[in-house]
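Tutorial handout. Part one gives the primary structure; part two gives the three-dimensional structure as tokens.
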Amino acid sequence: MSAPPEPAAPSTSLTLSLGDNPVAVLEAAVWAMAALVSTQRQALSAPLTDVLACDPQRTAVLESLGLVHRGPDGFVVHPSLDQADPATARSAVEAKLSSLRQAVSAAVSDVAGTPQGGWAGQSDEVLLGQGRASAATGRALASKIVPRLARCAERRPTD
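Part two.
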């Protein structure tokens, strides 16, 4: 079993510096977000240090952003990358993935600016992703918030 990664000190300069080309910055940001989401998704079912070790190219992207660096005892991660709570971690990952899918759907859509926009204009994959994100959020709320509300815990159905 891997030791948990140490938290890295928050960086004050998490910017993609690619010169005078803002389009290159945006393209790099998409790949950075993909690396982040992929890492966090896999870390839902495996230790984060193992996930980082199994894909050096993806980890290099995270290192270039200051989210990960190699310390004397292994990986050191920025606090925003660590997902301590499984219920909220799944919700956060599904929401990020849903946002990426919606962005791709918007990029390939031929109906932008028409009445067919909105949820009706989204693909089945995007809608299913949004549903998964909503379900994960519901589970997180049911397991974290509802038990703390007065008398809700007693009325909540058991699984």
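Part three, for discussion. The helical segments are 22-42, 48-54, 56-64, 86-108, 124-144, 152-155. Residues 6-77 form one domain.
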